[in-house]
Amino acid sequence: MIRSARLIIISLILGTLFLNFSSIQAQTQDSADVNIYFFWGDGCPHCEEEKPFLDALVSEYDQVGLVDYEVWYNRDNQEILKQFSQVLGFEPSGVPVTVIGDRYWIGFREDYKAEIESALQQTLDDPSATDIGLSLASAAQDAADTQASAPQPAAEPAATLEASQSTVLPEPEIGVDTQPQEQIVNLPLIGPVNLEKESLALSTAIIGFVDGFNPCSLWVLSVLLALTLHSGSRKKILVVGLTFLIVTTIIYSLFITGVFTLLSYIGYLKWIQIGVALIALTFGVVNFKDYFWYKEGVSFTISDKRKPKLYQDMRSTVSDTRSLIGLAGSSAALAVGVSFVEFSCTAGFPVIWSNLVAANQVTTLDFILLLGLYMLIYLLDELAVFISAAVTMKASHMEEKHGRLLKLASGVIMLALGIVMLVNPQWMNNVGTSLLVFLIAIAATLLISLIHRKILPRYGILIGSELKTDKRRKHTKH
Q1: pLDDT of residue 305 exceeding 60
Q2: What is the β-pairing status of strands 34-40 and 64-70?
Q3: Whole-angstrom Cα Rg for the chain
Q4: Of the residues 45, 73, 189, 395, which has the fewest C-beta atoms closer than 10 A?
Q5: Does residue 178 come out as left (phi exceeding 0), alpha (psi in the -120 to 50 range) or beta?
Q6: Whether the predicted model's global pTM rises above the 0.85 cut
Q7: Residues 48-90: pLDDT tens digits?
Q8: Would you say residue 146 lies in a domain?
Q9: What is d(CA 408, CA 290) in angstroms, rounded to the nearest whole number?
């Protein structure tokens, strides 16, 4: 009896494998020279996006066939995907999965199209190319033939039979949802956090934080508050400061939304990624240059020619003797004008962030939440300046050395982000690598500043604006 049960179970297993892979043969034994294997999920948006592209390839190439398997709700197809993944050596963590020859793609992005078509052409040109599906079907057929002709083993004890059954019949590795394993950590006062899902939020927080240390915006706010303090009215400070921050935040949010909408409309194309990377590198190089040669040559700062007009506008605003509503109105008008002047100082980070979010194809709600997080963290330093002035009735001053250091930090970080976008943009979707990128950039900033300001001057080596200042000082003495 035990022997019969064992034979039935083994026959069922081999029969299932044979049926699964005979379905591959049924779909591929037509005139197709090359087969595209497409594993998808019913309701998967990226699968729906890729399917028309694959259909177009099959229509374009007469020798190409498309073999597709729904794996979210079909356990037999899950087993087929499992066999493919074992042969090719990948973890089937999600859909869509596309296989051509011995190459595979997990997920679907716009830049995958060129890779898939190139692999298809290479496989068509190579008569010896391996078809994984047919190889697996052939192996299943050979296993079934071998089992049918093999001598039957003697009966086993019941305990041994149970052990062999539990080994022969493992649970499929692919679940119904076929989602990646979650990385959960417990943070004090916060609770469990899914690192995979929060990686985009982390990148948002870091970019927003760095973007907030914008020397142009901090200079304008500091001067505006300093002029307002002469009135001696805390109420005026609150009205002017809050109005200025609210209006500039709204305009900046609209600017970022516009950039995001444009990038989403265009789509995540390879040339868009390269273009954004070049923008980041350009801003990075110019800001890095500004640390050494401040405002010399090309510079993303408020030019000295515009400052007298800004001073005049700010004085007119704070000297407004009308009601608080009138003061708020003039402050809002000033904020609108200043916002457009500041765009050249800070446009790099919004473009980088918008491209990152657009590439992840987030929902409208997710974008609103991420933008809210970005702006909240972006405002932290300006809120600190404003609250300090309102509480102490003293203004903090933005000196050139502070502005140059902020330029260095933003320049190095933009250079790092630009390089990442050219090499592998997906690094920014991982908590560990995104943190590593920013930590390396911050460490490089501190090291450059230390060498430039402390170490080199000890040996009489001056670089950039310091060299001009030193020459001017020596000339004055003579």
Answers
A1: yes
A2: parallel
A3: 32
A4: 189
A5: left
A6: no
A7: 889 999 999 999 988 888 999 998 888 888 888 888 888 888 8
A8: yes
A9: 7
